[in-house]
Write a structure and sequence with these properties.
Elements: H1 6-14, E1 19-22, E2 27-30, E3 37-40, E4 44-50, E5 53-60, H2 67-76, E6 85-86, E7 92-93, H3 96-101, H4 107-114
Antiparallel strand pairs: 1-4, 2-3, 4-5, 6-7
């Protein structure tokens, strides 16, 4: 399994259980400056029940944009934001089809692109 995990965490939290939902995935992510897929996104989600409110659920993608979101953009014929992906040639691209054929950069790639605007949190 790979992809969104929130629904599993939410289902458990609705039942009153705290959950940590994790799995491994095929290699989708590439290293900075590379053009090969090196490691998986290894998605994870957390869920906490709350007595008087809907559960608190957190889901994360370790890529600059979740592959499912990239696929939705491809189907819509839309571009993705700059810094989201790398084509199979190793060059940055905004074309979802090229990104899906190459590696997806880790989330820190997106942060690196934003450093020129003064936004520089550390994720890795």
């Amino acid at each position: 399994m790979s992809g969104a995990m929130w629904y599993l965490a939410e289902d458990l939290a609705v039942r009153g259980l705290v959950s940590i939902v994790c799995c491994n995935s095929p290699a989708y992510l590439g290293m900075h400056g590379g053009h090969k897929r090196v490691f998986g996104t290894n998605p994870m989600a957390f869920g906490w029940p709350r007595p008087l409110s809907p559960p608190l659920v957190w889901d994360q993608a370790s890529s600059a944009m979740a592959r499912g979101e990239i696929e939705l953009k491809r189907q819509a014929g839309a571009e993705v934001p700059p810094g989201t992906g790398i084509g199979p040639d190793g060059n940055p691209t905004v074309d979802p089809a090229e990104i899906l054929a190459g590696p997806v950069p880790p989330v820190s790639f997106c942060v690196h692109v934003l450093e020129s605007d003064g936004f520089s949190p550390v994720y890795w």
